[in-house]
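Exercise 7. Given the components listed, write out the predicted structure of the assembled complex. Treat all entries as one system.
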Amino acid sequence: MNELEVELNCFQRVREYADIEPEEHLSEDHAKSLVVPASWPTSGRVEFHNVTARYQEDGPDVLRNVSFVANPGERIGLVGRTGSGKSTLGLSLLRFVNIASGQITIDGVDITKILLNRLRTSVTLIPQEPVLFSGDVHSNLDPFGESSETELASALAACTSIHVPDSSDQADHAHPAKTARPLALDTPVAANGENFSQGQRQVLSLARAMCRRSKVVLLDEATASVDHETDMHMQRVLREMFPDCTIIAIAHRLRTIMDYDRVLVMADGEIIENDTPANLVKKEGIFWDMLRNTGEYDELVQMIETKPSTS
Ligand SMILES: Nc1ncnc2c1ncn2[C@@H]1O[C@H](COP(=O)(O)OP(=O)(O)OP(=O)(O)O)[C@@H](O)[C@H]1O
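Answer.
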């Protein structure tokens, strides 16, 4: 492809973006009526009241009558088989799916009565595959220049204590950030963060959340290329650096959430169990069954008993 073709592609892509309908198109008066106090959310209490949600208006219900409360500072693990609705529940909190009935509130404010941008900048999503932009670590952590250098450096320092192993022990010349550590604010980031491993991308995403001081953090646990050790470090940072945040984590590995305050088990778009891991084990229900099917039952139950203290 010659240079002209590349440039024309860019032009075409910009046109495509410009033609995308805005997700929210409101009159000035309507937008004003959706303003919430600058301090919102102050405590991060998330409540789902009989929420039924679907992707398309005329599509099937993917969440069915979901109700639960995440108290401020609680860490809640979402588990369930593939297709049970875990990601959809997370996405509904950011209004990426249609809420057909019921209500979701954060600190008592109905999330459909807030400007979309305000909602999405207040709830931090740490996706499985975080997006990084070409530039450096600094511009990725704080794209809008809202944090001080000290804040950025301390968030990065907290997160880079997480050891993210390399895919190989050899220096990786094609992906220097995968081997050259520790990460610094001026470490270059290639387009799509291609010079970072998936684990490192999640770590940076965590640091980004820390800079935003979000009260509600939604974490979609990375399934690929993040080993157990990295996972545990991520969890430790979440516990230590976000002590007052409400954390809702979609867990693909049960061991990730064994020390969480509460576990919600989902099946077919519904919450079928909601309790502390210890109580769910005592109950010998679905969660207990899931633990037994891992082949690591004793080890996992032991993790509940040796739960690290948050104080
Ligand atoms: N964009 C979409 N449009 C329509 N239906 C979707 C969409 N995404 C997911 N679904 C459907 O919603 C249901 C719940 O899917 P969801 O991804 O929330 O499950 P999950 O528990 O997160 O699964 P996994 O563990 O595989 O990520 C499934 O039936 C799925 O096919």
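Discussion: Residues 46 and 106 are 5 Å apart (CA to CA). The mean pLDDT is 84.
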